[in-house]
Amino acid sequence: MERKKYAVCGVSSRAMYGYITPMMRQFSNCAELVGMLDIDPLRFEVCRERVPETKGVPCYSAAEFEKMLSETNPDALIIVCMDCHHKDYLLAGLQHDLEVISEKPMTTNTADALAVLEAEKKSRGKVICTFNYRYNPIHSKLREMVWSGKIGRVTHVDLNWYIDIRHGSSYFNRWNRMRENSGSLSIHKSSHHFDLVNWWVDGIPEYVHAFGALNHYGPDGEFNPSKRDGRHCRDCTEKRQCAYRRRWETRASAMGTYDDHIGAFVSPKKLFTTYRPDQCIFDSEINIYDTFIANVKYRNGVLLNYSANFSTPYEGYRLAINGTRGRLETLEFCGDGGRALPNLNDGGTQYIDYFPIFAGRERIHVPAVEGGHGGGDGLIQEDIFMGEDPNRKFDILAKSVDGLRAIAIGDAVFCSIQDGTVHDLTGFIE
Ligand SMILES: NC(=O)c1ccc[n+]([C@@H]2O[C@H](COP(=O)([O-])OP(=O)(O)OC[C@H]3O[C@@H](n4cnc5c(N)ncnc54)[C@H](O)[C@@H]3O)[C@@H](O)[C@H]2O)c1
């Protein structure tokens, strides 16, 4: 079998566990990693240490993008660097008529997302957006149930997302805390959630209004030991007075820093040359929100009310999808360190409750799949590297227009929090 050739732009943690390792192991008979590019040479070393099979793979700096293409001749690019640089590699890849697989968010603002769609129209290449949450079996089942007409015409979605203190604070330790890097959490994180709703209800967003605040992080955070900028967790002298760190660090493990994105204590070894993933969550440069609520109206009449909190005692979400003939509900909770969670009441596993409008409840258990993001990571990797599963009844692998719609909601949320107005997306979202 001829193997498809991939080059990776950004040797991030996500690149290593989400693409590079699977290409080198499960998919080595259909995928070949021909090149890796990053601004930081240390990332190649970290990668070779974690995935020794990458030893012979040629590495390139960002300035050597064209050189990488001419020397390695890839069929596809996988864009997994810091969000704010996705657009440059997307546009460059499309100009070379390549398939471009972009991690979410495709771009960090609506204007850039529109530019990607324009470039795609002129290219023989195409864009794939890796919305892996769609592949979580519960989320796919919800799509199937909505589409089967079980709840009639969808009228309203309630979605409340909770990101716990460990996961939530990790965004404020890292580059993600700056609007210019990540677009803000309403894009970086919530684009996953907006995409799910857009997909479940087949919705084109039209109007968005939001409120938000920075309640927990930044200098005024209630648990800030003192108002000083420039501290770093790894060598912070106030670490033992910081409630966020004390929650999960013992005095011994405090020698290192827990990185939720890497899932390990990062101690004292350096992972990046160019930035530190342990910046203080109380720094004054933080310019995004950690709490927000949004209302979205879709062209097909569906209404969404959404909230996100990034400093909750446990992680998860509550979802209800209401229709003219019934309602679907699901809850998911998880947490660190054996914390007591809200009672799921049914063996602790996630399920979907279906309430037909005039009859009794049905409970649907969906078998779990092993792997990251509720099993979604393994399933999306199969579609990316082996081609879409022909036996699936509905479209699932997201396109550039899906990336645009999710970003447009997230961008409008950020802007609406700032200017207090309803944002009208009708002129440019198809
Ligand atoms: N789909 C998911 O569930 C999921 C989960 C985690 C991360 N992600 C996405 O993956 C991407 C990486 O996230 P992460 O947290 O693993 O990042 P990370 O902090 O581990 O790595 C970011 C990488 O980008 C590199 N970089 C910065 N500027 C660059 C440039 N101009 N050119 C090339 N490389 C550059 C850095 O050197 C670093 O290697 C992000 O877009 C993020 O949104 C998606």
Task: Kindly describe this structure.
With 430 residues, the protein is of the alpha/beta class. The chain has 13 helices and 18 strands. Helix 4 runs parallel beside helix 5. It binds nicotinamide-adenine-dinucleotide (NAD).
Instruction: Say what the CATH topology of the largest domain is.
Output: Dihydrodipicolinate Reductase, domain 2
Gyration radius, to the nearest Å? 22 Å
- Give the class-level CATH name of the largest domain: Alpha Beta
Number of domains: 2
Q: In order across it, which strands form the biggest sheet?
A: 16-15-14-13-7-12-11-8-18
Major sheet size, sense and barrel closure: 9 strands, mixed
Ligand catalogue: nicotinamide-adenine-dinucleotide
**Structural class designation:** alpha/beta
CATH-scheme architecture of the largest domain: 2-Layer Sandwich
Helix share, percent: 25-40%
Distance between the termini: 39 Å
Provide the low-confidence segments as ranges.
none
Short overview:
The chain is α/β, with parallel strands linked by helices and 430 residues long. The chain has helices at 13-24, 41-50, 65-72, 86-95, 110-121, 137-147, 165-173, 179-182, 185-188, 190-201, 243-246, 376-386, 400-419, and strands spanning 4-9, 31-37, 59-60, 76-79, 99-102, 126-129, 154-164, 205-213, 257-259, 264-266, 291-298, 303-312, 315-323, 326-334, 351-356, 362-365, 398-399, 423-424. The strands form three sheets. The chain has a nine-stranded mixed β-sheet with strand order 16-15-14-13-7-12-11-8-18. It has a seven-stranded mixed β-sheet with strand order 3-2-1-4-5-6-17, sandwiched between helices. It has a two-stranded antiparallel sheet with strand order 9-10.
